[in-house]
Amino acid sequence: MTKEWLGGTTIFAEMSALAVRTGAINLGQGFPDTDGPEEVREAAVRALREGKGNQYPPGPGVPELRTAIAEHQLKRYGLAHDPDTEVLVTAGATEAIAAALLALVESGDEVIALEPYYDSYAACIGMAGGTRVPVTLHPRNGAYHLDLDELRDAVTDRTRLILLNTPHNPTGTVLTREELAAVAELAVERDLLVVTDEVYEHLVFEGEHIPLASFPGMRERTLTISSAGKTFSFTGWKVGWVTGTPELVTAVRSAKQFLTYVASGPFQYAIAEALRLPESYFEGLRADLRAKRDLLSAGLAAAGFEVYRPAGTYFVTTDIRPLGESDGFAFCRALPERCGVVAVPNAVFYDHQKQGAPFVRFAFCKRTGVLEEAVSRLRGL
Ligand code: PMP
Ligand code: GLN
């Protein structure tokens, strides 16, 4: 097959189907097993009843949501955006990534992505006709590290953009201020664009999330992507967004209009309200997930895994070699039968599959009782 990025089913669909088939606890695909805040659901119902968004909403997104996104970026990060020209609502972050790459990447352009990378990156770089250039994060001392020299060496005359992701799926790495400053310096020096996927911006347990766009020289060359799916536990609503300069956002909008045109009408109104929830909501989400991270990490360590304790996201990556295993694919395919738990092999997020082979990702965005049950099952391995 020439379009190798179209091969097969996504690992998330495959593993969720395996969970359904075997009745195993699904810690594979990353979605919460409880829905987001009641008042946000009510806001969606209200919008539906009031006939808001039941017909095509405006192409760039409803003004209420674009304004709320601009307010969020300003209040949290000091990034000022004109809601009319610098904010675009998309069908989840997935469409934002696709539209950004289709808009900006020409055939033969190189796109640098941190490896392991979220699976849609490879597919969308392929759809845009680009060539992906992975820069591998290295596991060391219980965490994953970006080697800035390797990033620098990956830039060539054909590099069009860096596709960044922090907090990072699947490793849980949160890039530090120093690392982000170095990425920014490199982008400015080599005149590169950066598309930065910050969907886990509110799920940070250690350190802080700093948007790349806030570094000197980056406002004008960065497209920032986020999503309500993660922050508000409504992955099925598919409300995402992009912020950046009018030129960059217009380019993304041009591609987006031929992908979905618009999406998620009534949900856009509800997410506008969600973005204005009091700080206690965001703190509560973080505290809840921090406790779940600790529960699952401790359980995995007790079961014999080497655990890479995540600073952010709702995933924990483990090394299965201490269990006498080395093939994450085989391990994940057998795990439901062995102990009734589903996980995801990190190798699917690598070009250098050998480097990813012994690593396996578990999601902890599940109810405490479910995680406790998973931990007790894993202890039987
Ligand atoms: N980027 C990353 C890093 C993700 O983990 C996900 C969801 N798992 C997405 C993008 C897609 O987000 P959405 O569901 O809003 O399309
Ligand atoms: N982002 C989710 C994950 O990493 C899954 C999204 C999907 O199924 N495409 O698990």
UniProtKB/TrEMBL annotation:
Q: What class of enzyme is it?
A: transferase
Protein name in UniProt: Pyridoxal phosphate-dependent aminotransferase
Question: Which E.C. number(s) belong to this protein?
Answer: 2.6.1.-
User: Which key words are in the record?
Assistant: Aminotransferase, Transferase
